[in-house]
Amino acid sequence: METIRNKGITDENVLAAINNIPRHYFLDSAFDKIAYEDRAFPIGEGQTISQPYTVAYQTQLLKVNINDKILEIGTGSAYQATVLAEMGARVFTIERQKKLYDIQQQKYVFVNKYPSIKFFYGDGFLGLPTFAPFDKILITAAAPYIPPILVEQLRTGGIMVLPLDDESGNQRMLRITKRADGGYDEEAFEQFSFVPMLRGKNK
User: Fold this and answer.
1) For the whole model, what pTM was predicted?
2) What is the bridge-based pairing of β-strands 47-49 and 184-192?
3) Residue 50 a catalytic site member
4) Rama region for 63: left / alpha / beta (φ>0; ψ in -120 to 50; rest)
5) Tens-digit pLDDT profile for residues 84-99
6) Are 110 and 20 in contact (CB under 8 A)?
7) The one catalytic residue among 29, 50, 168, 193
8) In terms of CATH, what superfamily is 2-192?
């Protein structure tokens, strides 16, 4: 936790959530000895679990409140979803990789502790219109553009955080806030490197 604090994470609720969650449960046992290093690790299907700093950075930008209804695009290992649930949010998380989705259905070890997490298999670009509107939306993969369908699923005043592709080959972290007219205000932050956000379902 001190590592990510020293990197500039100041939200004490985010720091506490990261500190309270045993990260090694989200990784293959081969990584047990290094599970708490501040770096990303592979989780299969070409996907990774983000480093704790990246998870903390996105979560801090999201301004999570207790009982927030949050849509997460890209479940992956479910580590980020668990951080959000630890902070008191209601999490709707969607995964396009069927194998990763199935793993969470069968092996998610915190299912009783965090019943507020709901897992879905589907196309992240489409979101979950049946459950909209959401207070917050978090995209955990490199988006080629800001998906308009997801903006529609935000409530007025809601926040979306996403890494958006830029010309450098990396991504610029953005935070958008939806206005009453359906448009949004945009803030740009640091650069990161994420796996790409892909369309459709992948079996």
Assistant:
1) 0.93
2) unpaired
3) yes
4) left
5) 999 999 999 999 999 9
6) no
7) 50
8) Vaccinia Virus protein VP39 (3.40.50.150)
